[in-house]
Structures are given as structure tokens and as C-alpha cells.
Design goal:
alpha/beta, six-stranded mixed beta sheet, globular
């Protein structure tokens, strides 16, 4: 097929990788963002790149935890009670997605999206001379003493169902992998398939630089709307200037919602605030990625130190970061790695674009064939970016993607059209 002109809106990990894939196929690509590449959620990513990331955020048993979410502002998931009226439709859909039958179906879709991530991403990183930014050292799930449940958990069941090896370890096995672990950690499981990036921000900026070296164009401009055109073209309004393209790809994270709303698509996309703390002089060596199951936040060795990141917060628009949540991450990191030096650290808070069912919106806009959707990856943007980019490249070239796009279709949210 002849080369096409493509606008990709959003220079986070998803948009940047998509732009690289499209430019590789010879299309004329312009990547738009109001900020520098990797400035949003991608900047604070916890760095995990695991094909075995097949678990949605909503899991069975969530409903009984709701009262605790409203009361504990330092817990794994906190909801500002003042936001309940606005969030109620989204939260109901979120809880429904946590039924076991739905979880298993969602997990299968996540496995299809995330499974090829390293096979697709690593060749691109090699082209960009960024191979060293990814290490394949696995991931260790940790149980506290008296709560040895991860080996029998739905998480492990889903990972095994997706074909990944999960090794059950006792206390001795844990310390063979990570000698610095606290003695109270009695058991866990190790997932060898997991990898991580040692610098998530550099991963995005390096790929953006590679994209420009390959004659792609980065335009630092605010895209306020998409203008539907007759036939198979679309336009964007970038800083007040209308620009025409054969295809427009929406990969703008939480800012995707108003963009697609302008075309008549109502998507229940909310901003889940996540936090990280990076210990810049950790004083301990970490060999792999850790996930204490009591916290559901990851501890990751990085080039700039050791980073603990994760958790979910639903807060008011514009509310300042809650320093108590960052402090809680410090306490959890210290409880996991007692020798960790937590004095020298940086903190960050960012907004992740999340759907109720943990699946992104991916595919062609039903009423606007020149517009492609690639947003809503939630906590797994760096994991799902490569397969998403392959799908976008297939659609631009009018090839049939190898991924079944039905579970990712925007139409699945029709019952939630009341959510603004």
C-alpha cells in the first residue's frame, strides 16, 4: 500500500512506539504532544515489562474492600468520598469487571495484547541502540509470614493459564534470589518471563529521538480537537491550525477522552493517580523486580536507584499530591528491604488513563474510518505499547491485525454512555 500521512496524538510510550512502527513502514508521520515526549504517565512508570501481566486491576472480592478504600488514604486504593457521585457509574462497572468469569475473559485479552511485548519491542530498541535499557531478570511476588496465599491465588492461576512458568519458593528460595529481603517474608513465587526497563523516561525519549532520526516529525503543539472529513481523511486542530491527514491516531492518555468525545464517542476513561518514590542512594543491591502482595506496588532496580511505584488514588481534579501516600511507599519499601536507605529520594505523582475493565480502547473509530483509537492502557502502557503499535500499523496499511479487536472495541461501553 502507498505511504500515508498520519498524525499520532500523544508522545507517551504508546504513541511514540506507534509512531516508530508507522515510520518504519514508510508512512509520513507527525507525532504531536503539548509537552516533551515521555513527560506524562510514561515518565513515572514503574518500568515492569512483563508478558505475564495478565491480571486486570479489578479482581474478585473487591466489593467488601470499598469501605476501607474510603477511610485509608495511604492504602493500595483510595477514593476521595467527595468524588463518589461522579465516579459511581465507573466504579459499578469496575466492580462488575471483577467477577471471576469476567476476570478470566479479560485476562485472556490481556495475554493476547501483552504476550508479544518483548518480541516486538526488543527489535525496535535494537534499531534505536537502546537495548541496554531493558533487563530480563524476572519478577518475585512476596508473601508476608502467615499470609502465604500467592501460590494458590487467581493471579498465579491466570499466569499459568496463559502459559507462563511460575516457580513457588520458600523463605530460603526467596533469599537465594534476594539476600536483602526482610526475614518476615516467608514465601512467594517467581515469574521468569518478566523484564523491566532501568529508565522508563529514557526509553520514551530515546525512541522519540530515533523516530526523528528516521525522518519522523515531532510537533510540540496542543491538539484540541479532531475534525471529521468526508471520505477517508481527518483533520486535527493543533494550536488553532487545521491540519489534514489520511489517518489520525489517538494515543493521548487521559486527554484522549475529550478528543474522542468531540467525535461523539463517550468513553468511561478516568485518571487514576499513581505515585512512585525513587531511592537514589539505596545502599542495597536488588537483583529482580519485587511485588509485595500486601501492598501491590512494585520495587524495581533502576539506573537512578531503586523505585517503588504503584497504588491507585481517585482524587479531585487539580488536587495536590498526597504526600502521605508517598511516605507509605517508603515504609513499605523499608519493610521489604530493611537495609534500604530511604533518606535520599525523589517522589512523583501522575495520572494513568484507566477503563473499568483494564483493557485499552484499540481499533478503528466505528463512524470515522480515518481515526484510530489507541488509549486507556492504565497501569500497563509500557507493556501493551508494542502490540498496540503493531495493530495500528496493520490498520493503517489495511491489513487484518492478528489480535482480536472485539474486546477492545469502544462500543463495549455503550451501557455507560451516561458517564461524562
Amino acid at each position: 500500500m502507498a505511504a500515508r500521512s498520519v498524525a499520532v496524538i500523544g508522545a507517551g510510550i504508546v504513541g511514540t512506539v506507534a509512531a516508530c512502527f508507522l515510520r518504519r513502514e514508510g508512512h509520513e508521520v507527525t507525532l504531536y504532544d503539548r509537552d516533551a515526549p515521555g513527560s506524562g504517565a510514561s515518565f513515572g512508570n514503574s518500568g515492569v515489562i512483563s508478558p505475564a501481566a495478565v491480571m486486570p486491576v479489578a479482581m474478585p472480592g473487591l466489593l467488601r474492600k470499598v469501605p476501607r478504600w474510603l477511610l485509608d488514604e495511604t492504602g493500595p486504593l483510595y477514593i476521595d468520598w467527595r468524588e463518589l457521585p461522579r465516579l459511581a457509574p465507573w466504579l459499578i462497572a469496575f466492580l462488575r469487571a471483577g467477577r471471576e468469569d469476567r476476570v478470566r475473559a479479560i485476562s485472556a485479552s490481556l495475554a493476547a495484547l501483552n504476550g508479544p511485548t518483548l518480541d516486538l519491542l526488543m527489535p525496535l530498541l535494537h534499531e534505536a541502540s537502546l537495548d541496554a535499557l531493558v533487563e530480563r531478570k524476572g519478577m518475585l511476588y512476596l508473601d508476608p509470614a502467615g499470609q502465604e496465599g500467592v501460590r494458590e491465588s487467581l493471579t498465579v492461576s491466570l499466569q499459568r493459564a496463559a502459559g507462563y512458568r511460575v516457580e513457588v519458593l520458600d523463605a530460603g528460595g526467596l533469599r537465594d534470589l534476594e539476600p536483602a529481603l526482610a526475614p518476615g517474608l516467608a514465601s512467594g513465587v517467581f515469574v521468569p518471563a518478566a523484564a523491566h526497563t532501568v529508565d522508563p523516561h529514557r526509553l520514551v525519549t530515546g525512541l522519540a529521538e530515533h523516530f526523528e532520526r528516521q525522518d519522523g516529525t515531532f510537533a510540540r503543539a496542543r491538539v484540541d480537537r479532531i475534525v471529521a472529513r468526508a471520505g477517508d481523511r481527518a483533520s486535527i486542530d493543533a494550536d488553532g491550525e487545521i491540519r489534514d491527514y489520511d489517518t489520525v491516531v489517538v494515543a493521548a492518555g487521559v486527554r484522549s477522552k475529550p478528543l474522542v468525545a468531540g467525535l461523539g464517542y463517550r468513553v468511561p476513561l478516568v485518571a487514576q493517580r499513581g505515585y512512585h518514590v525513587t531511592f537514589t542512594d539505596p545502599g542495597v543491591t536488588l537483583n529482580t523486580v519485587l511485588l509485595p502482595t500486601a501492598v501491590t506496588a512494585t520495587i524495581v532496580p533502576m539506573a537512578m536507584g531503586i523505585r517503588m511505584g504503584g497504588t491507585v488514588e481517585f482524587a479531585r481534579d487539580g488536587a495536590p499530591p498526597n504526600v502521605k501516600r508517598a511516605d507509605a511507599l517508603c515504609r513499605h519499601a523499608k519493610a521489604t528491604l530493611p537495609a534500604l536507605n530511604v533518606e535520599k529520594r525523589t517522589t512523583w505523582m501522575g495520572e494513568r488513563p484507566c477503563t473499568p475493565d483494564s483493557l485499552p480502547v484499540l481499533g478503528r473509530a466505528p463512524r470515522h474510518p480515518a481515526v484510530l483509537f489507541a488509549f486507556g492502557h492504565g497501569h500497563q502502557g509500557v507493556i501493551g505499547a508494542a502490540k498496540t503499535a503493531e495493530v495500528i500499523a496493520d490498520l493503517v496499511a489495511e491489513r487484518t491485525p492478528s489480535l482480536d479487536l472485539a474486546p477492545f472495541d469502544v462500543g463495549r461501553f455503550s451501557a455507560l454512555s451516561r458517564l461524562g
